[in-house]
Amino acid sequence: MKLLRFGKIDEEKPGIELENGKRIDVSGFTEDFNEKFFESGGIQKLENWLKDNAADCPKVSQDTRLGSPFSRPSKLICIGLNYAKHAEETGAEAPKEPVLFFKATSAIVGPNDNLIIPKNSKKTDWEVELGVVIGKKTSYCSEEDALDHVAGYVLHNDYSEREFQIERGGQWVKGKSCDTFAPLGPWLVTKDEINDPNNLNLWLKLNGETKQSSNTSDFVFNVSEVVSYISQFMTLLPGDVISTGTPAGVGMGLKPQRYLKEGDVVELGIDGLGSSKQHVKNYKG
């Protein structure tokens, strides 16, 4: 299934995109796609409910705004330097263990919402990433069992302000967490629709020019490894997101470097997970 949320900001309702591309409102089944929904086996229950009720669900227009395909999770955990070629372009060695950092969940927006360049930013950058959505409470899980704890996958643009992240000391989080820096979606695609998350093409274009084009087979640490690894240090809750890192081609790695400015358009996508587009705007206080 392809889970989505639609409507005005902070007023989103849950929906589904059907195989024919049409969208329906499933708020008759659940009030939201949230931690409670996932932990109660909501995906399977919704699938069963749709067999008898899909035809009666209200239709959703294709021009209706999409929000993040699930409500704000307890955690958005990111993996740094998780593509071999990206580590190389930054001048770093491939890590021996996954590099973990948090991104504030207040940065989450819909897939096609505007990117707002933050106040005093000079180096706002792009990063197409595969997001892994946790389906049930996970603690100390093995790599062999890791995918049993996954609900599905989502497209994520891990926007980053490089000066805030790298040049101003401290941890990376302040360069990762600005408002609008985590567009998710268009959908949460349930794991049964993705044969191998470690073999997906992903791409990003800036103003129509391809900047990133790779495959998750270039992971340093694959999906099972990162889910298991993170669960050794913290409990993952249903709806939590693990963003698995970005491939080569970010603005910081270009020669000369290239950062986003007002008027730019960023488009990105992953096989089976759809695509998104963000128009770049300056912060206006």
From TrEMBL:
Q: Which residues form the Fumarylacetoacetase-like C-terminal domain?
A: 75-280
What's the family?
Answer: Belongs to the FAH family.
**Name of the protein described by the UniProt record:** Fumarylacetoacetate hydrolase family protein
SUPFAM superfamilies, A to Z: FAH (SSF56529)
Keywords from the named record: Hydrolase, Metal-binding
UniProt cross-references to Pfam families, sorted A to Z: FAA_hydrolase
Q: Which InterPro entries match?
A: FAH (IPR051121), Fumarylacetoacetase-like_C (IPR011234), Fumarylacetoacetase_C_sf (IPR036663)
Q: Which domain of life is it from?
A: Bacteria
Picking any one GO molecular function of the record gives:
hydrolase activity
